[in-house]
Input
Amino acid sequence: MKKRVLIAEDEPNIVTSLEFLMGQVGHEFRTAVNGEDALRVAAEFRPDLMLLDVMLPLKSGFEVCQRVRGDAALGRIKIIMLTAKGRETEVAKGLALGADAYITKPFATRELLDTMKRLLGE
Amino acid sequence: MSRVRFIAVWIVCFALLAGAGAGGLLAVHAVLAPEDQRELSRLLAAGGNILFVFGVILFAAGGLLADGLVRVYLAPLRRLAESTRLVAGGNPAYRPEPGGPAEVRELYLAVNALAERHETLLRSVEDQIRQARAELDDETNRLAALMSELASSVIVCTIEGRILLYNEHARRVFSGAGVPGYIGLGRSLFSLLDRSLIVHALDQLRQRLAQGEARPVSVFLASPGPSLLLRARMAPVMGTASLQGETREANGFVLLMDDASEEVALFEQRDQLLERLIESARASLASMRAAADNLESFPQMGLEQRARFTAIIGAEAQRLTAELDRATRSHSDLVRSHWSPEQMRAADLVALARRRIEANLGLRTETGDIDETLWVSVDSYSVAQALSFIAGRIRDELAGQDLRFEVTAGGRHARIDLLWAGARPATGTAAWETEPFRSGGEASPVTLRDVLERHRAETWCENDATAAGSRFRLLLPLTEPVRTPPAPVQDSRPEFYDFDLFSQPAPARELDDRKLTQLAYTAFDTETTGLDPAAGDEIISIGAVRMLNGRLLTAEVFDRLVDPQRPLGAASAKVHGISPAMLAGQPTIVKVLPAFYQFCEDTVLVGHNAAFDMRFLQLKEAATGLRFTQPVLDTLLLSAVLHRDLGGHQLEAIAARFGVSVTGRHTALGDAIVTGEIFLRMIPLLAERGIVTLRQAREASQQTFHARIRY
Output
């Protein structure tokens, strides 16, 4: 089933791969390269799921996550946080702020797709 | 009093004499015939006036005689009594000058003979005690040497936080810039380290002791100054159980402290470095893996897409490699910035390098001219590594086989030369300098250039003038040779030991009722521009020394010059020998007084003619906001209490009486030390007179003071 996915990520090399992957799986997607961009795109694109990098410029992934969760109009967007730090405390923080899943880089695309499937109820 | 008593005795005697005369007359009168009685009455009436006059003359003569006896016998006897007390309790070498009539003089001689025997006996007892103590001192000194050699700070405290003992290292660390408070015996540790921190660590120790742990240690970080971070280890000092079965409790603790600033900084920087590396490695790997997964999962993708993913993998691999290189460099920079060079003899450095070269390269080495007196400050490992690297290049590139080492002095440098029979490198040593060292086949990130930079060293190759060979020269800056550090304490008995304090009670609120022998004192003195503080005379110098447990702590002194901000009186300059030039640039009293206030806090002040000095301090109250409210004892008044009849209460006179040698008279510190020593010798004499507590000493002083004022 076709879903809307927002990729919030500032590393162009991984964005390329994620965009290709989303296209192959058949999702509609948009990309944001910083935190503010991510919030703006989320408001107009109304995604079902967000791939949210923690270390975004302008606004961190944590901030974006908290804003999205605080905005009733945005509804229940599924959020998967991606991080390069991988500290346990950070994972706990992300989940506490409302993320649905947390994936530490590097990850297998299979793992990402499985998590997405689970969250989107497919 | 005794004079009055003598007069009274004479009046009674006279009354008895007169009574006896009158009684005799009455008795004679009673046995006479009536006409004879009348005759006697007539005779008495006629001669009564003469009798009365005779009686008055007799009375006066007797009175004068009695007074004379008092003067001639009693005064020298009283002087003898005071002298005897002084001999017995203060200065056994003191001998009063015999005076008074022959009998009293006899007594003087007898007392002096006794004093002689007393002194001899005392000396021999002292000798015995000294001998007996020598062994104990040896042990104490071994402990002192051990402690002063420790590269850690050691402080031992009572459970209340009073300092019992500290070593030289601790003194240096806590006397450093930015550390508030003073380190000193009997002082509070809490002026140096945060009280709550210590209390917390103590609580932990108690808890672990209660849980039956035999040797609990509590570890914490403390920051007593702005740029000082110490790692402290605290261990309890156990008291002895007084009753059988009673649990022993800690009555003190030992703090062992090391500077952790560098270590912690290095650790933090390393941590940051590692975190940055992990992050960027994860990011790059994520990009690579996603691209690789896509390539694998979607083999049907177009050529263009495939090329894109392949390029991503290549680019990210390069980025990761660069990141790893950067981290490696940062790490070696980090280690380099924290390197601590060691002082060693250049000859020893060469010996180290030779061992390395012979073991690793299989080359034969020998030594030529070696100057054994040259010292360099080096990281011996990396310099030996560098020399070994050079030896390797000489062997591989120039076919050098036998190497000769020489060490010579060249100006302010040590020249370490490597000589071999053969050509020198055609292009100089530049290529060698940037080539990474190799050890065990693996390249190390360090180059010869790094080592040279770090040591401010230089190298070059030249022809060896004396032989048909070449010379590689390493120029290292010379440093001062390391001498065995001088003994930190001059005395055989170190100042730092004072275990008596273990039994010292915690500072009681009723200071006044404490014994003089149990108090901490600060003996002090000031030098001033003149004698009249009210007319604007100012303090130019403050000297003070601490006293504790009957000892002068000569390592804990306060000695400051003060800019009086007014001209010096010519007369006063003659007394203290301080010239205006010496005071130029010194801090003003507003700066110095707070430091002195802290120095003498919680102690009883002792001064000679202290009222004079206190007046100067008092006049600065408004300017500094500091009130010196602690009790003050005055050796001048105490001397008057003890030696009313021995006369002379100037500092010199008292010092002579107590056998205290005077050095540095009329310097504030010199006078403070003399005052302190005199005071310590007064304490046993005061005790003989029943003056034991601070209150008693103050009251006795006050009485004498009033007595002196009245004169």
